[in-house]
Amino acid sequence: MPATSVSYKCPNCSAPLSFQPGHDKVSCEYCGAELDIAAVDQLFQAKQEMAAREREAQEAKWDTADAGEHWDADELANLKAFTCSSCGAEIVCDENTMATECVYCGNPTMIPKRFSGMLKPDFVIPFKKTKADAVDALKKFYAGKTLLPSEFTANNRVEAIQPMYVPFWLFDANIDAHATFQAKKIRVADGGNQIIKTISVFNVERAADMTFERVPVDGSKKMNDDFMDSIEPFNYKELVPFSAAYLAGYLADKYDVTAEQAVPRADLRIENSVREVLFSTVKGYDSVEPQNTAVIKTEGSVSYALVPVWILTTRYNNQPYTFMMNGQTGKVVGSLPYDSKKAFLYPAAVALVVAIVAFILISLIM
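Now predict its structure.
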């Protein structure tokens, strides 16, 4: 959480500094460091400016009002939604989809109703990968996984496979970025009968103007955020203006995270990226620790898009396993079972092979 106030702490040990009446210095009662008043003013002037920037950053708002459009009457007539009676998920489909399975829990029951109450997407990335591509990619995903149970790979069958358009909010912004870091240089010298270690502490500042385009935040609570992050990136150069025709034969998840609710996650992704970029410019030190980061949006806008995802479900020992594939690039993620016996025996087998090889080498040397 960015700091919007300044605490006067010792630059050596981070303990609180205090002014002692009757003295002309500020001292640290823990490590004994003493600083002139002018030095303290200079030291904390930058921190005060950073705190002001961070307050400004917190007050900067995204303009989410223009994300998405309203459906016209003809489009609404061709769209329906169903609510899964088992898990409550709400899925959007075209008017020709009368029966399907819930991609989240496998329940085959659906209750058709008029599709309303949702903004029309601005853009869509059409599916490029087919059902056959998804099945083949899942088999390749299994390959080389040493600890997978043999029964899982030998008898595994895909129980359900659904193409799903997943709602995403895409954030664009021009930003004014500031970050501070604490850097240290450590020098060790031999002082005869003692080793002298000198630690020099530096307050390093970095600032930059940056532009971010299409920072994605998925708009579905039901979709696993870790999975969705893992199948990124999507190629947003292939975004096309939305048309309901792209939904023909596919399902589309109805967003349950608004653009406004997605803002904190977008801010976090941008802030992490800013910190990483500015951190990479701090060189020539033995250690560097991030201190504060302020990201002030000078311009910000949000658009609403649907992106393609294949969702595959398999079952092993009566437990479902879900996998997701990027419907544009083919990247697959998911959780897999593991064989506890293999997990126990595999390290032992490796150790045995290493021991045999070592014995052979020693024998040859002898």
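Confidence is low (pLDDT under 50) at residues 1-6, 95-99, 108-115.
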